[in-house]
Every structure is written in C-alpha cells, then in structure tokens.
Amino acid sequence: MATENKVREIEQVVTAHRQLEGAGFVVRRPFPGEIDAVDPFLLIDEMGPVDYAPGEAIGAPDHPHRGFETVTYVLEGEMEHEDSAGHRGSLGPGDVQWMTAGAGIVHSEMPSRRIREQGGRVHGFQVWVNLPRRDKLIRPRYQEYSREKLPQASTGDGKAQVRVIAGEALGARAVIETRTPIVFQDWTLQPGADVTISFRPDLRMLAYVFEGSARIGPNGTRLEEGQLAIFGAGDSVHLSGSGGPGRLLLLGGVPLREPVARYGPFVMNTRAELVQAVEDYQSGKMGEITRSAEIRGEAP
To answer: Which CATH code fits 151-257?
Structure first.
C-alpha cells in the first residue's frame, strides 16, 4: 500500500544576525548564533549585499581549512580565490565553487581587483558542509562551475524557477558531486508561484530567504528576507509566492550524527584532532600561498 506524501512542516524560524568576518566584511548569518549548527551544515554566511566605494572592498585573506567543505556562490560582483596548492581563479555572478578542504589547505577569497580599486556591489554566500569522519583527511578537491553550466528549471507557469547547485528539482539534476547526499538550490518565486518538491526523507531540510519574502511549508508561513526555516520530517517541501518576488536557498543534507570538535577554520571529531590540525598548520604542513609580484600588485 502506497504511503501518502508528507509535506514537511516548519519546526523553527531563525532570524540572521549581522557580524564582521575575515578582514572586516559584513555577513548576515542565521547560524551559528541562536542555533549552533544544523547537521551536516556548520555555517551559512550571506556576504553582503554591500556597495563598496573605491578602495573599500575587503575579503578573507589567507586562512586555513580542514575537515569540511566550503561552498561559495556569487550573486553579484566578482571574487578572486587562490590556495596553497597553486589553484587560483575568479567567480562571477551565478558561479559556484565547491571546495573540499579535507586534510587541509590555506585559502584566500577576496573581491576582484577591479572591485577593490574601483568599487562595486558584492553579494553572495558561503556555506560550510561537514565531512564524515571517513573523509576528514581526504585530498583537497575543487569543483567550479559557471552560471551557464548550472542546471535550471521552472514550473509550467514559469512562476517558480530554480538553479540546481546540488541535488535535483523539477527534473534538473546537479553537475556537482558531493561526498554525502546534499541539496543546494536557488529558488526564485513570483506572486502566485506554488510548487511542491519531493526529497528523500532522511534529509534535514532548510530554507533561507535572502530577497523579498516567500511562503514556506504546508501552512504557508511567511518568511521575510534574512529568515531561515528549519523543517521537520517528511517527503517534500512546499514553496509559494508571497506579495512580491522572493528568492531563497533551499538546503538539505543527511545528518552525520558524529561528534563535532570545532575550532575556527578546523572541524574534526575530537579535541586531539583539533590540536593536530593547529600543529600541522603552524608547522607549514598545509602549505602557504605563493604569489608573484604581478599577483601581489607590485610594480615589475
């Protein structure tokens, strides 16, 4: 006998707080804060939106990571990144970088030189996804995709559109590979939009509204910009339009249910592993970012 599809209800609504990160750039953060984390997600940072004057733009200079993944998703502006493995590049509007830090890497993320020198608008996300114990010390890996390569889909009436970064929705399947089952989707909802998306029941699901407002869940709870909904158990998520256009991240992951030992940019399972991570970083085992004079912006 078939079981009836259960739409997930909202268990909790969290309002993001603003704080400074990196060299002093503003982020809007739903967690950690009022709640510490939502397994397997460790952090959600909405970077900006902020309009920089010439010479004002700042980012996150050289810093290490070990034991988890960072997902950088740019909405507006441009970000430049480089690391101790010699990897460097740039991300523009709609581009995504999925970095598996694994055993450890030193990383830098900054607004582009153009924005640092001329000013401009910066808006985007960085989400931290925990790695299971078995993958904590794997070799670092990057997956980068431009806006054009990320699958998109919409409902028949065109009132709900989705860009699929991880997972699957409306028949569109992500090109990014994840270490554990993950959903990471950018939904745009117009007034009158109404969509129910099925997801495997073992996923922990979240929705974060970052533009306008949206109605979430079976009761149509209205969430405003900067609010995060944490869903309960079920097989599907219901989204609908509000009084005006709305945009949200829909996130999901299978909880790891493993001990978490956390210290700044290191996320391991035990305190001893954290101590080892700090020692490895301080002794140079995670490497350092080498830059030519041209990259440093020095005169030849």
So the answer is: 2.60.120.10
What's the whole-model pTM score? 0.91
Q: What are the residue boundaries of the structural domains of the chain, listed by start? A: 13-149+259-289, 151-257
Q: 249: burial class by Cβ within 10 Å (0-12, 13-18, 19+)?
A: buried
Q: CA 117, CA 75: separation in Å to the nearest integer? A: 20
CA-to-CA distance for 26 and 188, rounded, in angstroms?
24
User: Hey, is 186 helix, strand or coil?
Assistant: strand
| Residues 238 and 9 sit within 8 Å (Cβ to Cβ) | no
CATH topology assigned to domain 13-149+259-289: Jelly Rolls (2.60.120)
The CB density around residue 212, as the number of other CB atoms within 10 Å, is 20
Exposed e or buried b per residue across 80-90, where buried means at least 16 C-beta atoms within 10 angstroms of its C-beta: bbbbbbebeeb
Whole-angstrom distance, CA of residue 60 vs CA of residue 83: 12
Tell me: the pLDDT tens digits for 88-106?
889 999 999 999 999 999 9
Q: How far apart are CA 40 and CA 253, in angstroms?
A: 6
Rg (CA), the chain: 19
